[in-house]
Amino acid sequence: MTQTNRPHLDLAELDRAELEQALVDLGEPSYRGRQVFHWIWARGVTDFALMTDLGQTLRTKLTAAFRIGTPVLEARHTSTDGTTKFLLRLADGRHIESVFIPDTPAQTFCVSTQVGCAMNCAFCLTGKMGLVRNLSAGEIASQAAILAKETGLTTSPFNIVLMGMGEPLHNYDATMKAIRILADAQGLALPPKRITLSTVGVLPGLEKLALEPLMPNLAISLHATTNEQRDQLVPLNRKFTLEDLIAACKRFPLAKRRRITFEYVMLDGVNDTPEDARRLVRLLNGIKAKVNLLPLNEAAGIPFRRPSDARVNEFARILAERDVIVSVRRSRGRDIRAACGQLIVEGERASAGQAMGARIR
Ligand code: SAH
């Protein structure tokens, strides 16, 4: 690796093979890289001085040559339902949010892939920020490491949903590298099947994902059943149509017993009619699918309302009657603004022009 000549290479950005090489470039045996990787990812230790099995001389050498630029936990808020939102400060002073959702049915970490988001879906607060920047692989993976440490789950199973801020397939390489880092047996050893990647359907990314050796679960943010309607709700649909998205889903290689989750945000009087439900059944015909209905989390500045429970249940009933597997996402952490689509960090929008007039909190 040529990068090691650069002073203070950030070791949190390296997968295990790269980290071993960085140590070899420093004149050390490669197993030292494996040890450092274990400290960072399995034990959440980012201070070389605390890596006690490395020897004082090596620790001094590492401190001189490298840094470990993981985010810093700045604040946390716990909801009445136990959901906890973590505010993390990145090395450049930007902020992101990650959410711990207990018992759903497993413990789940909701992780961000970008600061802000470029997709600008009509009902999502994060979209109002615009895209500030991509997160690096280390910044994505670190969220899981920090939450695991903070919640005492480093050695217990947990799931990750890439449903925080950002569009993972719009930050493809960093997202995949983060999955690789998290899966490594020397680190958190998180099997990719415990990770769900949620996307609005960035088609070139979806085609690449289909070829990945480490395959997360796939969730598609569908939200509408006609191009006319989806163009309005998910602007990316103007580039990649519903037909192309569905065709890509039909081609997507699924392991045995896996299904693609289709997320469908429910907007009162907009996309929640019985006709919408029946169109959705037809659209998903021939796909191993399950549908997750997301009754809208309302927020100031979002021009939609949440439908009544009766309306949501009727929609779900129509799907279930036609043998579509359907669930309704219980909204978690709304009181601390941690629910789906509510992650936004004040003062970090891409530009004032994209921001809403009113304060969002
Ligand atoms: N960009 C990715 C992942 C982040 S959003 C994606 O769009 O899939 C995770 C889910 O929350 C998406 O399905 C998104 O549409 C949904 N969501 C966004 N805003 C919401 C809101 N206000 N209420 C309910 N769900 C929302």
Task: Describe this protein with a few key phrases.
361 residues; alpha/beta; 10-stranded mixed beta sheet; 14 strands; elongated; disordered N terminus; binds S-adenosyl-L-homocysteine
Write the layout of secondary structure elements.
Blueprint: E1 9-10, H1 16-25, H2 30-41, H3 56-65, E2 66-67, E3 72-78, E4 84-89, E5 95-101, E6 108-110, E7 114-116, H4 125-129, E8 131-134, H5 137-150, E9 159-162, H6 172-183, E10 195-199, H7 203-209, E11 217-221, H8 227-233, H9 242-251, E12 260-266, H10 274-284, E13 289-295, H11 309-321, E14 325-328
Parallel strand pairs: 1-2, 6-9, 9-10, 10-11, 11-12, 12-13, 13-14
Antiparallel strand pairs: 3-4, 4-5, 5-6, 7-8
Helix pairs in contact: 1-2, 5-6, 10-11
Residues 119, 121, 123-124, 163, 167, 198-200, 221, 263, 265, 294, 296-297, 340-341 line the site of S-adenosyl-L-homocysteine.
Structure write-up:
The chain is α/β, with parallel strands linked by helices and 361 residues long. The chain has helices at 16-25, 30-41, 56-65, 125-129, 137-150, 172-183, 203-209, 227-233, 242-251, 274-284, 309-321; strands at 9-10, 66-67, 72-78, 84-89, 95-101, 108-110, 114-116, 131-134, 159-162, 195-199, 217-221, 260-266, 289-295, 325-328. The strands form 3 sheets. The chain has a 10-stranded mixed sheet, with helices on one face. Helix 1 (16-25) packs across helix 2 (30-41), helix 5 crosses helix 6 (172-183) and helix 10 runs parallel beside helix 11 (309-321). It starts with 8 loop residues before the first strand and ends in a 33-residue tail after the last strand. The protein binds S-adenosyl-L-homocysteine (SAH). S-adenosyl-L-homocysteine binds next to strand 10 and strand 12.
